[in-house]
Amino acid sequence: MKKWKILYSILFFAVCLLPSLGMFFGKSESSSENRELAEFPSLITEEGLNVEWLPQAGDYFQDHFAFRNELVTANALLNGKLLGTSTAQGVIQGSDNWLYYKDSLNDFLGVELLSDRSLYNIAHSLAMMEENLEARGVDFVFTVAPNKNSLYGENMPYYDSLKVDEENNLARLVPFLEKEGVSYVDLYEAFTGEEEILYHERDSHWNNKGAAFASDLLMTALGKEHDSYENVEYEVRKDYIGDLDEMLYPLATTPEEEIYYNKTLTYAAVGEVESNFDPRITTVNPVKDGSLVMYRDSFGNALVPFFADAYASAYFSRGVPYQLSDVDTMQADTVIVERAERFLPDMAQSPPVLFGTAAVLEEEPKQLDTQGALDVKLSRQGTQIQLTGRVKEEYLDTETRIYLRINGAGTYEAFPMDAVVGEETDSGGFCLYLSQQSVLSEGNRVEVITETDGKLSIVYQSEIKEETNQ
After folding, report:
1. Is 216 exposed, middle or buried (0-12, 13-18, 19+ CB in 10 A)?
2. DSSP-derived pairing of the beta strands 99-101 and 139-145
3. Burial class (CB in 10 A: 0-12, 13-18, 19+), 1
4. φ and ψ at 443, to 5 degrees?
5. Cα 348 to the chain's mean position, in Å?
6. Where's the AlgX/AlgJ SGNH hydrolase-like domain (predicted)?
7. What does the alpha-carbon distance between residue 262 and residue 219 come to, in Å, rounded to a whole number?
């Protein structure tokens, strides 16, 4: 009996030590999780002895221990198959083998929604962007890729009973887009009108048929001549591995069906492109016309082939904030902004990089305050000047416009935005980009002017110097 106890103890400690010992005999496999893994910490840093070495080493071990993927997968299978729960931080285990991205949960529940001012910031920034592009003869359209559980929430688990509000950010944003006159293609309404499911079960995105459907709607809205895929023959292959499936079961993924169209495409990529997930992709098509710039996120990856095949040249960027200089570089005649529903809060914080257009005020604004704005800063961003700050809440309404007057001369409307202050956001933020010729080398006088219900008011007035990175 004593012998069996000794053998059991040896076996127990061997199993416990195996993940640690295995780290010395082989390189751990890369994780499928959608995050960066911890790096091995240095004992000595520039500041001296690293007093955080032990917890950092613990984080490293947690991310790199041997057989990690195997153990993570085994644990996920036990919880997912037996208990119906997800062990991956970013994945929700639904019914009937459906998986959902947890980042979309607030939208689904209707909690922590954007304020009306934040929604205005998104809509008005897009309207300013569209106005600038239209003045240059460039067509513009904005669209939102719906969250998977916004369209197909019937397989969500018990969360449905925790809903606080049936209206989410997207539903509340649409009236602001309409009021601001933004050219908007409502994919949510279009997808809900389709009986066929056009998203993957174990991925957070639409399938190729859904991408073709969205592409057709966008190009039709733009009046762009293109090939519709409605009647194109396709084959179905069970070979697609979903992103959520890889996150949850890194070594036990379940292939699901994907649509592959039987159509010869005529475009070619410029330079090396590993996949449609690349942050920047340029394509050419000698048998088509038109030039496109598309700002997209991961939903836009599946759109790339459809748009690349419709335009003579196209540039697809995942960069944020949007660099509108791309439009000039590409000599684009069309700009599309595609954003996933769950990223709408980020849109409120990231206005596009675009030179401000001079504004003409109908009357001289009334002086209300000289310190009604906070953190007003002037800094150099490459070859341009950036002015940022926040208007105090008492001088803001939901649809208050913000102007900056520089040195008593040029007046420009700033992009409204949500400014991040510590762990909070302030929806009274603003951002303006100017050419270097618009400001002095030193001692610029800046006035912040608000327009609420047609009334103009100066709420801030001060001389500010350019910030430099020491």
Report:
1. middle
2. unpaired
3. exposed
4. 60, 60
5. 11
6. 91-248
7. 21
Token readout for 176 is 């602001």
Distances 454 to 359, 365, 401, 402, 451 between C-alpha atoms, Å: 14, 10, 9, 12, 6
Report how far residue 294's alpha carbon sits from residue 335's, in angstroms, rounded to the nearest whole number.
Answer: 6
Stated as kind and residue range, the H or E segment containing 143 is strand 139-145
Residue 182 neighbours by CB distance under 10 Å: 24
Query: Which residue, chain included where needed, has tokens 């001692």?
Result: 443
**Integer angstrom CA distances of residue 334 from 355, 407, 443, 447:** 19, 36, 40, 35
Tell me, rounded to whole angstroms, the distance of Cα 206 from its chain centroid: 16
8 Å CB contact between 321 and 315 = no
- Please, which contacts does 221-226 make with residues 24 or more away whose CB atoms are closer than 8 Å? 221/141, 221/183, 221/185, 222/139, 222/141, 222/334, 222/336, 223/139, 224/290, 224/310, 224/334, 225/310, 226/306, 226/310
pTM recorded for the entire structure: 0.84
Using only the alpha carbons of the chain, give its radius of gyration.
Answer: 26
List the 334-340 sheet strands across, edge first: 184-185, 139-145, 334-340, 291-295, 313-317, 280-284, 268-269
Which of helix, strand or coil describes residue 47?
Answer: coil
What amino acid occupies position 87?
A: T
Q: Kindly report the CA angle at 147 between 339 and 246, in degrees rounded to 5? A: 100
Looking at the chain, the number of H-run helices and the number of E-run strands are 13, 23
* Residues 353, 356, 360: CA angle, nearest 5 degrees: 160
Looking at residue 119, its amino acid is: L
How would you write the pLDDT of the chain (470 residues) with one tens digit per residue?
566 656 655 655 555 555 555 444 544 454 444 546 677 777 777 667 776 767 766 666 566 544 455 544 444 444 445 444 444 478 999 989 899 999 999 999 999 999 999 999 999 999 999 999 999 999 999 999 999 999 999 999 877 667 888 889 999 999 999 999 999 999 999 999 999 999 999 999 999 999 999 999 999 999 999 999 999 999 999 999 999 999 888 877 999 999 999 999 999 999 999 999 999 999 999 999 999 999 999 999 999 999 999 999 999 999 999 999 999 999 999 999 999 999 999 999 999 999 998 999 989 999 999 999 999 999 988 789 999 999 999 999 999 999 999 998 899 999 999 999 998 999 999 999 998 888 877 788 999 999 999 999 999 999 987 776 54
